[in-house]
Design a protein that fits this description.
By secondary structure, the chain is α+β, with helices and mostly antiparallel strands. The protein has ten helices and 23 strands. Belongs to the bacterial secretin family.
């Protein structure tokens, strides 16, 4: 009886599972998945005299008026010795066209038109009487030579009056506004405003920027840009623009600032830099057939693409451990080693696009690393703003010795693996990605050393492409070939003439190592956009229940 009791107690202890707090698990998962947000767009009204947006200022030059075509319907008219005014009115009535004829136009005309295009008949009649026309809205105004001379005189007086008005405006006092620049690069905004005023933006000295795009404070730059129509100053301390311009130009400048100084989107970049053999890389890519399923917000649809591992369903549960299968993935187009000369220009680049869930990718890479088939060199996670470069770099400084007039100097050269990414948000769905990969390898072999110093083999791959939000890009093309030829033998017996081969062994290997880089860009929502989306359920694998986020 005692033994049975102890067995039951032991069994109960073995079956007891550790309990977890659903509340803590919920917040732990949210903390792991939180990447931040992009800044909100705030509507700020700039105080100007006229509230309507104006981006153009009258320069004193009239815009050319486009020539409006005349009617072309067939016209038949047969008159003899008739007043020219009456003939023109008859033609206008036939075309249902408004016409204005000055009283000083006199004379008679005899015409016979039979199914003649209206515009040809009208122009022929005007030329035969030294007349011309112009459009005044929807009205054809017929003019004589005297009318044209008077019109030219009026236009000359009008141009003179406009020139005088412009000269008076140049003497008008300048208004001053101070506008704080929140998001955009203040030097770029200053240059754009000067160009809008008809000037040429010039910079004296160099302007360096930090990672956020802000100008460094210890550089010498020109904070003032002048034109004949105003001035634009930069106050570095408050990151503000001081505008001096007339009323019309001031309105244009303030509206330009409101358009250009908008909060940029932020992009979260998750990358995995993996070292694998050529065979493992191919197998890894071929396993990425998938099935996409979606059960969010009451909808349900699915599609199959690529290939899955044999004997398994390509789909994974929507609410599983991690993000699971919420997207499509296509077979990895893993190519052969790039041809010589292609690597530096990016022509030998192999890449794959797909909306692979990051947890699936991470799980598969971690499993392969556990088996020793790959080596995850780095897995950086970084957030950057639109059109600003983000980079990650790892490596070492390699010492080398140089001599100058007999003096020995030890210097260092970087040997790093560097990944540079510059994202640009096209819209809420697509991004343009500029990617540069540099990989340096130190070659310590005696055959490649120069005066005892090792050489550094540099490789580089670059590309520009358009990718969907949350899609994964896979970049390859950085390969390394390793050749080995070794002989092993049993001591003494391997040297026996004629029979030594029985106790020897030769091994040769030719391995190709590949650097694979997985990059997944995610456009971060603003707080408002994030809260508008339906909440996702967090599945607790231990308790077997879902907790709403």
């Amino acid at each position: 009886m005692i033994a049975v009791t102890m067995l039951l107690v032991g069994t109960g202890c073995l079956d007891k599972k550790p309990t977890t707090d659903p509340f803590m698990e919920k917040w732990k998962k949210m903390a792991q998945e939180s990447r931040g947000y992009s800044p909100e767009l705030t509507q700020e009204k700039i105080d100007v005299d006229q509230p309507d947006p104006v981006l153009e200022v009258f320069s004193g030059e009239e815009k050319p008026v486009s020539v409006r075509p005349l009617p072309t319907m067939p016209t038949t008219l047969d008159v003899h010795d008739t007043e020219i005014r009456a003939v023109l009115q008859a033609l206008a009535k036939a075309a249902r066209q408004n016409i204005l004829i000055n009283t000083n136009i006199k004379g008679t005309a005899t015409v016979r038109f039979h199914k003649t295009p209206w515009d040809e008949a009208f122009n022929a009649l005007l030329k035969s009487h030294a007349l011309t026309y112009e459009w005044e809205g929807d009205i054809i105004r017929v003019m004589s030579i005297e009318d044209m001379k008077k019109q030219l005189e009026i236009e000359a007086l009008r141009a003179k009056s406009t020139s005088q008005d412009m000269a008076i405006k140049k003497l008008a006092p300048l208004k001053t506004r101070v506008i704080k620049v929140k998001y955009a690069n203040i030097w770029d905004i200053q240059g754009s405003l000067i160009s809008a005023l008809g000037g040429e933006s010039k910079k004296s000295g160099s302007i360096t920027e930090d990672a956020s795009g802000a100008a460094a404070s210890n550089v010498s730059v020109s904070t003032e840009q002048k034109t004949d129509r105003g001035n634009v100053f930069v106050d570095v301390h408050s990151n503000s623009l001081i505008l001096q311009a007339r009323s019309e130009d001031m309105e244009m400048l303030t509206n330009l600032i409101a358009i250009l100084d908008r909060p940029p989107k932020q992009i979260h970049l998750k990358a995995y830099i993996v070292e694998a053999t050529k065979t493992t890389g191919r197998e890894l890519g071929m396993q990425w057939g998938g099935k996409w399923s979606n059960n969010l917000s009451g909808s349900s649809d699915s599609a199959t693409i690529g290939s899955a591992k044999g004997g398994e369903d390509g789909a994974t549960a929507l609410f599983g451990d991690g993000k699971s299968g919420q997207g499509m993935i296509s077979n990895f187009p893993f190519g052969s080693i790039a041809a010589p000369g292609m690597g530096t220009n990016g022509l030998g680049l192999n890449f794959m696009l797909g909306n692979s869930a990051s947890d699936i990718l991470e799980a598969q890479l971690t499993a392969l690393e556990t088996k020793g088939e790959i080596n995850i060199l780095s897995s950086p996670s970084i957030t950057t703003m639109d059109n600003l470069m983000a980079f990650t770099e790892s490596g070492a400084k390699v010492p080398y010795v140089s001599y100058d007039d007999g003096d020995k100097t030890v210097e260092f050269e970087d040997a790093v693996l560097r990944l540079e990414i510059t994202p640009h948000v096209i819209d809420s769905t697509y991004l343009k990605m500029k990617i540069l990969v540099k990989k340096d390898e130190v070659d310590f072999s005696e055959a490649t050393k120069v005066e005892g110093n090792p050489t550094i083999v540099k490789k580089q791959t670059s590309t520009n492409l358009i990718v969907r939000n949350n899609e994964t890009i896979v970049i390859s093309g950085l390969t390394k070939q390793t050749l080995s030829d070794a002989t092993s033998q049993v001591p003494g017996l391997g040297d026996v003439p004629g029979l030594g081969w029985l106790f020897k062994g030769n091994s040769k290997s030719d391995e190709m190592e590949e650097i694979l880089i997985f990059v997944t860009p995610t456009i971060l929502d603003t707080h408002t956009e994030a809260f508008r989306k339906p909440p996702l359920a967090v599945h607790d694998a231990t308790l077997g229940q879902q907790v709403a986020q």
